[in-house]
Amino acid sequence: MITIVESGGANIASIQCALARLGVNAELSRDPNTIRQSSHVILPGVGSAGNAMQQLQKNSLVDVIPALTQPVLGICLGMQLLFDFSAENDSECLGIIPGKINKLTSKHEKLIVPHMGWNTLTILERNRLLKNIPIHSYSYFVHSYAASIGKFTCASTFYGENFSAVVQKNNFYGTQFHPEKSSVVGSIILKNFLEL
């Protein structure tokens, strides 16, 4: 059973549609027992870190998610929530991956924050999520905050600065971009996740 954590994210319907194209029906749930019993868990997120953490706290999931042993995929804000802390709303996050999420800085006058659009992935360490992803593939981003390059970064992207585009620590994976909106590349990544 594939479960999408019901955390108030606006991208849930598009994730369900992307999974349906792969022949998978994903259940939407905020129930801790359902999530614990799932074979794969997806943590989506569009919005603010503070609000998302409040939703997880309200649904008694703040301690449940870090204890999961099955494959977990955080998407966009969902990836950011895997870290210790976000500068957005000064939010304590799930503390699974060490590090802090910071706001993107518009160092060039032509760069607009939020970052919205297609950017290339630079693969730093090919893990199972990135299997069969061609070098310098494009993926679709919508975000204002990002994680710096660190020990658990598997792929990066440049938009005024380098930041983590794909991370992994043990069974926890994260994509800063939206695989459900990233065409063929996104479908491969979701398929790779489902095969973990």
Task: Annotate the secondary structure layout.
Blueprint: E1 2-5, H1 12-21, E2 27-29, H2 32-37, E3 40-43, H3 49-58, E4 72-75, H4 77-80, E5 83-86, E6 91-92, E7 97-103, E8 115-120, E9 122-123, E10 138-143, E11 145-147, E12 153-158, E13 162-169, E14 172-175, H5 183-194
Parallel strand pairs: 1-2, 1-3, 3-4, 4-14, 5-7
Antiparallel strand pairs: 5-6, 7-11, 8-10, 9-12, 12-13, 13-14
Q: Any overview of this molecule?
A:
This protein has 196 residues and is an alpha/beta fold. It starts with a strand and ends with a helix. The protein has one domain (2-194): Rossmann fold, CATH 3.40.50. 45% of the residues are buried. The longest helix has 12 residues, at 183-194. An 8-stranded mixed β-sheet has the order 2-1-3-4-14-13-12-9. The mean pLDDT is 94. Helices cover 21% and strands 32% of the residues. It contains 5 helices and 14 strands.
